[in-house]
Write a structure and sequence with these properties.
The protein is α+β, with helices and mostly antiparallel strands. It has one domain: Glycosyltransferase (Alpha/alpha barrel), CATH 1.50.10.10. Helices cover 38% and strands 9% of the residues. It has 19 helices and 13 strands. It has a four-stranded antiparallel β-sheet. A hairpin with a 2-residue loop joins strand 4 and strand 5. It is globular. The N terminus and C terminus are likely disordered. Bound molecules: alpha-D-glucopyranose (GLC).
Length: 573
């Protein structure tokens, strides 16, 4: 947790604005002016968000089918899936003792729903989010806040259960927070920055409620959450896809909110790479962990958010300009990531034999990475079959650590080619003990120890080896693994992981994370009743029961971004 000693209530820099007026007017937008192909929206609006190709931006439609008869192991699974994803309305039946689909839900499911509902946060009578943890035995710190990233699995659970209102409220509330003036000391943050978290303050005397938010000005290290804006866009697309209600994304406020977020990361500067340069601790790993530079988590979320924005932005004057910039960036970003972040046995061997100090555009070792900087563990970790996107690539630096979130999002967003996605799943299967062990799932692998830990984390006692962000196991990641499994047609992997989690999660009271090489121990400072552990489990269960839910959080490969790119002649995929 990043703010152990700051009481956000007393922070002078943020406006504790009393939001009295309704946030938006729900007026219908005139879509026909916005798209050259108005027929599409008139016929079936919800599908308009799915199939805009990067270059054509054409919108297609597909007939609805039942989910029955879908072969989960078929490589065409995702294609079939895309054609069956229908807007929601229907519930998964998990809140009831017996599922409507005939499955006998695990007894934990009902308990999880109760826990999730207990975590609801209300603002003026409306649910607007879920609290990070409901653990009164530990000091609250900021676990009593609604975190944007933590709310994502909660939101997906509610969407899958046919309860989209809270998601809509959350999207609109955080949008309002975005427009606040954000300052750290005398420095003003970018307009588009979304909060890491927010809280509802009750004033019993005045009998009123106000919102308070943290944009990084209270966080340890004072880092703004780069991931929040990306998750916000991803969630807006999930809401739209799942409900078929395009009116929320069409609101001028939402369009503007998106453009502000995009302005922050598409601006021109001194960059020589299409990846996004970040400070340490600006995402789920919100402490110093050597994830500064170009961390995979941010790059994958960036890619996913760009693809979602492309589906959501209107083609009006302002929107068009962004669409063009996004298309260009996506091409460059996918080339860069697929070429330079990808590691498999062949690639590892190439790096091992790299020449250094090459000058000019003919260089193979473009970033001048020293083969001696290859860590010992990576030679054993790399399976014969399989591969993954490494943690970070920058001049003379490759961080070979495996990070779960970035790799799963790479699969879901189709940043990974189908071959790369399969390779990532192969790696997870072959390195099961290391990555899943006794509790899914390692946030990163391996842990840093001794001297390296001292230098990289700055001696952080919360991030000692195999604990918390430093090789700890986080149950929330179960939903991401499951979604990746469903997308790659490997549901049996998710089933195995869920079974492992079911043996302990409820008994242990939904911990935030587990410690140890195998994830055997409840984390040293782990909160109990951690909401995203609960929601992550529910989303994983619902997605396995009804794989068509995947559509709201996954995007199919864009054929325009092929062919797969090579770094050197020896590299094949
Ligand atoms: C921890 C996690 C962060 C999460 C927060 C609230 O600080 O590192 O990712 O958002 O707790 O649960």
């Amino acid at each position: 947790m990043s703010t152990p000693d700051v009481d956000v209530n007393h922070n002078k820099n943020i406006k504790t604005e009393d939001i009295l007026c309704p946030l938006v007017e729900y007026e219908e937008c005139d879509f026909s002016k916005l798209l050259e192909k108005p027929r599409l929206l008139n016929i079936d609006r919800q599908r308009s968000l799915d199939e805009r190709s990067l270059s054509e931006l054409s919108i297609g439609m597909s007939p609805r089918h039942s989910t029955k008869g879908v072969d989960l192991n078929s490589s065409r699974f995702f294609e079939q899936l895309e054609s069956i994803c229908s807007p929601v309305g229907r519930r998964s039946g998990f809140s009831t003792p017996r599922s409507q689909t005939g499955f006998d839900p695990h007894p934990m499911v009902a308990e999880a729903w109760e826990a999730l509902r207990r975590s609801l946060v209300y603002f003026r009578g409306q649910p607007v989010g879920t609290i990070a943890a409901l653990d009164n035995t530990e000091e609250n710190l900021n676990y009593d806040q609604v975190f944007v990233r933590d709310f994502v699995p909660s939101a997906l659970a509610f969407l899958m259960n046919g309860e989209p209102e809270i998601v809509k409220n959350f999207i609109l509330k955080t949008l309002r927070l975005q427009s606040w003036e954000k300052k750290i000391d005398r420095f003003q943050l970018g307009e588009g920055v979304m909060p890491a978290s927010f809280k509802v303050l009750h004033d019993p005397v005045r009998n009123s409620e106000t919102l308070i938010a943290d944009f990084g000005e209270s966080a340890i290290g004072r880092v703004a959450p780069v991931d929040s804006g990306f998750w916000w866009i991803i969630l807006l697309r999930a809401y739209t896809k799942s409900t078929g209600d395009t009116s929320l994304a069409e609101l001028p406020e939402c369009q503007k909110g998106m453009r502000l977020i995009l302005s922050l990361c598409l601006s021109e500067g001194f960059d020589t790479f299409p990846t996004l340069l970040c400070a340490d601790g600006c995402c789920m790993i919100d402490r110093r962990m050597g994830v500064y530079g170009y961390p995979i988590e941010i790059q994958a979320l960036f890619f996913m958010a760009l693809r979602c924005a492309l589906l959501l932005l209107k083609q009006d004057d302002e929107g068009k300009e962004f669409i063009e910039r996004i298309v260009k960036r996506l091409h460059a970003l996918s080339y860069h990531m697929r070429s330079y972040f990808w590691l498999d046995l062949k690639q590892l061997n190439d790096i091992y034999r790299y020449k250094t100090e090459e000058y000019s555009h003919t260089a193979v070792n473009k970033f001048n990475v020293m083969p001696d900087s290859l860590p010992e563990w990576v030679f054993d970790f790399m399976p014969l079959r399989g591969g993954y996107f490494i943690g970070n690539v920058s001049p003379a630096r490759m961080d070979f650590r495996w990070f779960c979130l970035g790799n799963c999002i790479a699969i879901l967003s189709s940043l990974a080619t189908p071959e790369q996605s399969t390779a990532i799943m192969d790696l997870i299967e072959s390195r099961w003990e290391e990555l899943v062990g006794e509790m899914p799932l390692k946030v990163c692998y391996p842990a840093m120890e001794t001297h390296e830990w001292r230098i990289i984390t700055g001696c952080d006692p919360k991030n000692t080896r195999w604990s918390y962000h430093n090789g700890g196991s986080w149950p929330v990641l179960l939903w991401l693994l499951t979604a990746a499994c469903v997308k790659t047609g490997r549901p049996q992997i998710a089933r195995r992981a869920i079974e492992i989690a079911e043996a302990r999660l409820l008994k242990d009271h939904w911990p935030e994370y587990y410690d140890g090489k195998l994830g055997r121990y409840i984390g040293k400072q782990s909160r109990k009743a951690q909401t995203w552990s609960v929601a992550g489990y529910l989303v994983a269960k619902m997605m396995l029961e009804d794989p068509s839910h995947l559509g709201m959080i996954a995007i199919e490969e864009d054929k325009q971004m092929k062919p797969v790119l090579r770094r050197s002649n020896s590299w094949t995929l």
